[in-house]
Here is the input.
Amino acid sequence: MIEFDHVTRTYGPKPAVTDLSLSIPRGELFALLGPNGAGKTTTIKMLVGLLRPSRGAVRISGHDLVKETRAAHLHTGYVPDEPTLYDKLTGREFLWFIADMFGMPRRIAGEKIGREIDHFELAECADDLAESYSLGMRQRLVFAAALLHDPDVLVLDEPMVGLDPRSVRIVKDLLKSRTREGMTVFMSTHTLAMAEELADRVGIMVRGQLRFLGTIAELRDQVATEHTSLENLYLELTTVQPVASAGTTPAEATGTP
Amino acid sequence: MNGISTSGRHEESCHLIAVEAESRVFSRLRAAIAWQTLRSMLSEARLRLALIVLLSAVFWALLYSLFFEAFSFLDSIHADVISLLFNAFFSSLMIMLVFSTGILLYGNMYCSPETRLLLTLPIRPEAIFAHKFIDAMWFSSWGFVLLGSPMLVAYGVVRGAPSTFYLLLLPFMVSFALIPASVGAMLCMAVVAWLGRLRMHALAILLTIAGAGAVWLGWSLLGSAATSGVTAEWFDTVITRLSIAEQKFLPSWWLASGLIEAARWGTQPEARFASLSEAGKFLAVLVSNGLLLYLLARRLARSSYRTGFSQLVSEMPARRQRRIAWFDEALSAAGTARGRPMRLLLVKDLRLFRRDIAQWSQFAIFFGLLGIYFFNLRAFNYNIAYASMISFLNLAVAGLILSTFTTRFVYPMISLEGRRFWILGLLPVHRDQIVWSKFLFSFIGGVLPCCGLLCLSDSMLGISPALLGVHEICGVVLCMGLSGIAVGLGAWMPDLREPSPAKIAAGFGGTLCLVLSSLFIVSVVTVAAVPTYLAMAGEAFGGGGPSSAGIFGWASGPLGTATSLLIVGVLGAIATFVPLQLGLRSFRQLEP
Here is the structure.
């Protein structure tokens, strides 16, 4: 479903992601962990087509993100870390806009919009302008929009930011059920506990390179071998010497979201 | 795995849509946003909307009457001049539209959160371009409509144009605006995609070339007339030089010629038909060229937009050096401890201004060009009457340029604090101080170049020290009033959600700010010029005319001047404190 084939991305002379090769099969929930400036955002941006790899290729459902961008996007749903909405559209109008862009027939679109509004408990505010939404409501609406067309691949960048505990539970349950149905999820997160709870496999990225790739069980085995906690192992894996910050994206380097 | 497979559900539920369908979806989006915006304005800000419409109508009517008088005068003495003026006006407008559309598109296409959403959807890049292009063209052309429509309607009325002329105005204006807008779009995309990090340098070079071109044109128009004064010979020379703008390959010529043909109303039906068909031909040329350039721009978007966006996203911000930090520190430390918060806010705004190339470059270009023009005034030997008249016109020009700057950059300042409002809200400063700091920033920033330029203008014209004093007082009053209008209205009707200053300035509040600023400038300059005008009229009548006796004699004397300055001061106080009071009251109660 998702394939990174020897992907390198540089910012000027500085590498942000170096020779990343990774294949995530159908129905897997993959969590990408790493400290600030590790290259997670760059990887996500390449996966959704906002950034082009300097070398290598990224494919979704067999479609190259550079050569067949639209076809790849057709199979992708994306929830960014900062939800972008049209303030002067209602939640329902926004969902219709997304449905239209995905070429969904009106009848099916209507049904799915109703379904996602119910899933994310948006019925009360669906006909209000998005400018009146709280951060959590905005995030739930973006989730609804990303899942509207039943994508094969869902890309999540820090998905739980701004969500209240109930919404977090809704999202977690939904991710579990959708991955059981065959959807592939690629999630970037700082939260080790969430990765532990949800992910089939985790990747730990440091300075643009995958330092660890495996299942949570494999990560636990390593914990047991080294007689330490999961958190300590994570911190050990992600500790870098204080040298020039290679692998830093501009946004991460400047601390801007 | 249980249930229906995602892939299976996906296949049945969505597909890539056609170009036409993409356009339709974007049209629906724009219509929905426009409708919701209008609805919320009608329900929440009816009075403000009515005020803006009313003042815009007044401004339009004033411009119309001004152009009507000018065309009537020119039509009676030298009808051909109108064609030359149209060409000069439209060609300079064309250059401005190229830059303004290019700059707006840069922000819309590469820096907006909306495009980051759209680029992750299965949409053609050229469709996203088209959507943002319409936005940019609208925002860059509204000034053209506001200024151009009263001018062209006045021309039609003076020439007794047929009704077809008025019907053709909009198609002519839109098709003309499409050409520079498409060129600006292509330049913007090409610079981002192929010049990468060099784009700021490329923009600086382009602006320098444009500025040098304008200086050269001004120099060649005015420089040669040194020592000859404003005579018929000088007038002919200027007319000859103005014909530089009259080039048949320029869209401005097609527009000017098309409009002149459309306004012609022959006595014979054959002549009328010939004029109309000529106008139709020019319109066809404009439309076909506009559409061709637009298609080329779309093609460029298809091939370069995603690449350019990717390059821009991956750029590292340049490190900033602390070269003039000493000035900021000195300003922060100077004065009393009580005033320190306000000085710190001033320093913050000063830093933002210095680091925003769009702000200081436009400021430098506008006032630089004005300085060059003032410096060239020495080329003429004016009599005192002309010199006085020109000095007041220069006062108005300086005010108008300052008003465009206050509308474009000062008015959005409060709105732009929206996303950072939690910082300002938690600072140990009163909200009033935030508004007053913006006012001070605008006033100090404006008064120095404005008064300096007025001093230059008057010394080049050989104006008496007394009149120079009048102009300087007016300059200070204009800076105060314009700053008060911009800051006051900005605080009264902030748009805390909009991140683009261009869009904030182009909105209703910005339009109102520009309209009020223009009315204020016209009022101040008119009131200040009355005593001088009466004195000149008195001299023209050899001291025995009506202007030298009674009320006119008093008005043209020192008492009249003092009274006019008093009225100017009152106007300035109204323009400064009324909007500021409205703004302060609203800003105190603002709940972001």
Notes: Residues 385 and 536 of chain B are 6 Å apart (CA to CA). Chain B has three domains: 64-313, 326-355, 358-592. The interface with chain A takes residues 1-7, 9-10, 12-17, 21-22, 25, 28-29, 32-33, 36-37, 40, 113-114, 116-117, 119-124, 306-307, 309-310, 313-317, 497 of chain B (CB under 8 Å).
